[in-house]
Amino acid sequence: MKKTLTALACLTLATPAIAADTIKIGLGVPMTGDYAPYAEWQGARCMAEKINAGGGVNGMDIEVLVQDSAADTQTAISLAQKFLDEGAVMLGTIPFSDTMIPVAQVAKSYGVSIFQPQSTQVEMHAGIVDNFFTGVSPDPFTATAAANHALSLGVKNVVLMTSDEGGSWSARTPLWFGDVVEAGGGKVVAKMNFSFGTSDWSPQIAEMKALGTDVDAVYISSIMPDISVLIRQLKSAGIDAYVIGSDGFDDPSLDAIGSDDPSILDKVFFATLAPSHDGSAVTKFIAECKEMGIDVPGLFPATGADTVAVVAWAVEKSGSTDPSTIADTIRNADSIPVVTVDSISFKETTTYAQRTIPVMGYKNGERVLISNEIPANTPTDWN
């Protein structure tokens, strides 16, 4: 994604009790700017406070160090160095490969890894760095889960929206979706480019109308508010197509566009990181944090709970706070309990979590869980 140079914010958040020996996790994440809704610090802070209130881990508190990297890679690298010098045993950063890779390279000499609970980009699994974990599965899995549901609805003709600004997440995820749709008998009738921050989709809509065929679905891997604008403008233009996407759709502000007319969301669905409907583990966690006085505004912030839960589990299991030992314990575990799903494992995949891929939709303006499986027909051209 495009980077905007920002000044380093000086806000540091930590859990209240800091013991003589603490388990430090450093998060140089976007607390301001366009990507702030997708950062994990609130969930990490809440999970640390819950663990500390229960006695900590082997008698040690978890200290979550948080500072704002906004959308600037150099700031994120500087923060990583700062946290490493302060004794962090795990890091989190801006969840895009052009930042995660250099941060991981800085952390390597300290024996420290990155745990990014929401990163789906395939670049991180290409062997460039080996001190990296993501708590979710890569984009080809989410693309496949969404495509499988589209095919089950009888979708045939699809338009793919692509952008290079979000790396493989926005550029290649639509292509994997298209591959699965075509393997299932559908057809990609057009591929169109877009830029983040688009507020006028009329050029793409005009191109769709000029195709000479009905468009059953539009797939895009993008962020809010771009998505909500696209949904409204397609409907206003009389294009009655499904609008399908990935985890970028999983933002409470998307739900809000159905407040006046819930039917606008009837043909919207997306594959995402974890079930996020009412009654899910994520929404229960968010409610618990609210009772503690911590606002965790949605799924992405809640994923930080997994970072803290995984580190705490590894320290307790190994009896060590050595970062290399923590990483080895995580990588060799058959099952690690987390918040967003029942458990995850890196034993077979090494860098990304084996877990189910939920597809979320809407009924009467409310989120519903459509499916939650590990797709068996995921494209293999990414690894």
UniProtKB/TrEMBL annotation:
One of its GO terms (biological process) is amino acid transport. Belongs to the leucine-binding protein family. Keywords: Amino-acid transport, Signal, Transport. Residues 22-363 form the Leucine-binding protein domain. Transmembrane segments: none annotated. It comes from the Bacteria. It comes from Planktomarina temperata RCA23. InterPro entries: BCAA_transport, Leu-bd, Peripla_BP_I. Pfam families: Peripla_BP_6. Residues 1-19 form the signal peptide. This is Branched-chain amino acid ABC transporter, periplasmic binding protein. SUPFAM superfamilies: Periplasmic binding protein-like I.
